[in-house]
Amino acid sequence: MTTRITLKIVNDAIAAKGIELVKAKDYFFFVASDGAPADVIIPVSVYVSKLRDLTLAEWVELTETAQEAPAAPKKKASTYIRGNSTVMTPCARVHFTADRMLAEDPTVTRKAVMAACMAAGVTYGTARTQYQKWKNK
Prior knowledge:
It contains five helices and two strands, in the order H-E-E-H-H-H-H.
């Protein structure tokens, strides 16, 4: 028969490491316990809803192997112009570019028109909005 896992049992098992497990609303996280040295590395949060979702051995193992939080995913570098467009009359530029590209190639795609507008210095939001207005006129 297995022993029921409680927060006290888990905290007693990991107390020597200077950390303790705390329950939040829908997950658990580790914190430095009172009187722990300043150099204690706190493991990452554990996203399980019930304490019994992991065994006592797995809780202890988390304190040994998860010593560093995983790196946050890096945002992909954006090619979009942020802020203000760098051309005069960007709205008219989108309509002009779309008209010209449609005259040259009747199968031109939205993506191609948007790319041409952004390369000319129109912001992404302006190009997107004005393309939609141009398409619906």
